[in-house]
Amino acid sequence: MGIKAIILAAGKGTRMKSKLPKVLHKVCGKEMVNHVIDASLEAGAKSNIVVIGHGGEAVGNCLPEGVETVVQEEQLGTGHAVMMANNYIDDSDTIVILCGDTPLIEGETIKALIEFHRKYGFAVSVLSALMENPKGYGRIIRGESKELVGIVEEKDASEEQRLVCEINSGMYCFEGKALREALLEIRSDNSQGEYYLTDAVEIIRGKGMTAGAFAGATSEQIMGVNNRLQLSEAECLMKKRINEFHMLNGVTLIDPLATYIESGALIGSDTIIYPGSLIKGNSVIGEGCIVGPGCTIDSSRLDDGCEIQNSVIVKSAVGSGSKVGPFAYLRPNSNIGRNVKIGDFVEVKNSNIGDNSKASHLSYIGDADVGEDVNIGCGTVFVNYDGKKKSRAKVGDRSFIGCNTNLIAPVELGENSYIAAGSTITDNVPGDSFAIARQRQTTKEGYLKGDKWEKKD
Ligand code: UD1
Ligand code: CA
Q1: Cα 143 from chain centroid (whole Å)
Q2: Residues with catalytic roles
């Protein structure tokens, strides 16, 4: 009695002019087919089967766990595509058919279609929409008492039928038994020589079962993406949807048109996002943060009250109250503590930085474990690579590293150690110690007064 979804995604997508299968093109950071699967799961489908085309392995590899694929070697039409999934259909199932290239469909709409379908006890229910310009779509043909009679493809439609503005979204809800029986009877005797899934409506009615059309979709939700222009339109609409969601959740977007938040991101209330910022992947941003302008936050976590300006943060975490940027780069696996300052032109990679520590300017911190309350002076370089292997450095709590220091890893500084500016540290420094490692200054008094150097003009 469960709900199963079959997602049609075998079409070549020639018009995308791409090596990538059409349904793997992303809208707001997520593959189109995965947007559809998310909507399906939200609507309560307990299993999802994706019909992929010849060479569609790449699609299979991008799908979430538990989603199955079935291959349609030759694209002989939507009816033929569903036939490929015949083995998954049980008589007692409710089958939802969706398209992999309609990323804007929402779970709630599919849910409403299923409710409509069950309420009236139809054997098949079609999700339809009213379109100002129905060109290219199959038209919904209703009878005298407005019942659904059939669906006519534009290429097969009469002049009069073409005037109908209610169109087929290409999404349906079927009773398993009715669908299985209809699939046996679909033929390809039409203008395109294809097996039309839409013919199932008439077949099912011919067997004395009932069919309905649910005009519950907006033109936006059923919009199919066939080329890059439509891809950008989908991106724009999805972006608007995501941004509105966050704004209504209490996030301030100074300029929503210039703010790019991917669909997996979470953002706490009272966070302010300035223009030119991109929040990617499953990033989680806390409350009361200030992000931007010009930030990329990719698959990272920012705790409450962080301030990030003109910086790039990838697969890293920043503790509450910390300030990053302007112009900082946190590369993967950087864990920044609370109330830390990572200032301008500081790059951090695969490092841990303890609470209240500061690297205010022009430093490279790679493969390091830096304790709490540490001051990393301007121009400090953690020298982590000898040309063959990477090594880690450790800096104890409350240490002070003077400007322009090189720490040649592997090396450890104990707690409360102090490194003189300009030092190149190759040996461990015990706690509470001062280390200086640089040439003494030589000053040659009067050196420039000799014949050779005296200025002549
Ligand atoms: C189909 C409908 C049309 C509807 C429109 C909505 C039919 C006959 N027509 O038309 O009434 O208005 O969708 O967008 O169903 N696919 C396969 N294998 C195939 C053919 C298609 O997997 O052999 C997949 C495509 O990848 C796509 C979906 O099915 O995701 C719809 O196919 P498409 O060719 O776009 O259908 P239309 O001809 O536009
Ligand atoms: Ca087509």
Answers
A1: 44
A2: 361
In a domain, 82, yes or no: yes
- The residue with tokens 């009272």 is 270
User: Which one of the ligands is nearest to 170 CA?
Assistant: 1
Nearest CA to ligand 1 atom 17: 10
What is the distance between the alpha carbons of residues 50 and 48, in angstroms, rounded to a whole number? 7
CA–centroid distance, 77 to ligand 1, in Å, is 7
Distances (CA, A) of 172 to 197, 355, 377: 10, 55, 64
Taking the C-alpha atoms of residue 180 and residue 7, their distance in angstroms, rounded to an integer, is 16
Q: Ligand nearest 22 Cα, by number?
A: 1
From residue 339, give the alpha-carbon distance in Å to each of 347, 355, 397, 455.
18, 6, 15, 53
Q: Which residue's CA is the closest to the ligand 1 atom numbered 24?
A: 8
pLDDT at 454: 66
Specify the 3-state DSSP secondary structure of 41.
Answer: helix
For residue 150, being part of any structural domain is answered with yes
Identify the CATH number of the domain in which residue 277 sits: 2.160.10.10
Which residue's CA is the nearest one to ligand 1's atom 3? Answer: 138
Query: Which tens digits make up the pLDDT trace of 282-332?
Result: 999 999 999 999 999 999 999 999 999 999 999 999 999 999 999 999 999
The CATH number covering residue 31 comes to 3.90.550.10
11 pocket-lining for ligand 1 (C-beta < 6 Å): yes
Examine the pLDDT at 19 and tell me if it is beyond 70.
Answer: yes
Confidence band, pLDDT 50/70/90 cuts, at residue 448: confident
Does the Cβ of 377 fall within 6 Å of ligand 1?
A: no
Look at residues 78, 76, 56 and name the one whose alpha carbon lies nearest to residue 67: 56
294 and 403 inside one domain: yes
CB-ligand 1 contact for 195 (6 Å cutoff): no
| Token reading at 32 | 């189109």
pTM of the predicted structure, to 2 decimals: 0.92
Is residue 384 annotated as involved in ligand binding?
yes
Å from CA of 406 to ligand 1 middle: 62
329 lines ligand 1 (CB under 6 A): no
Residue 226 annotated as binding site = yes
Number of domains in the chain: 2
On whether both 335 and 426 belong to a single domain, the answer is yes
pLDDT in tens, 107-123: 999 999 999 999 999 99
In residues, how long is the chain? Answer: 457
